[in-house]
Amino acid sequence: MDIQQDVAAQVWQAVRRPGFDFAAGFWGFVEVVTTRRCIDWLRRRRPVDPLDTELPGPTADPLDAAIARERSELAHEALGRLDPACRQLLYLHAVVARSYREIGEIMGKSEGALRVQLHRCVKRAREVLRGLVTTEPEG
Question: pTM for the full model?
Answer without folding.
Answer: 0.51
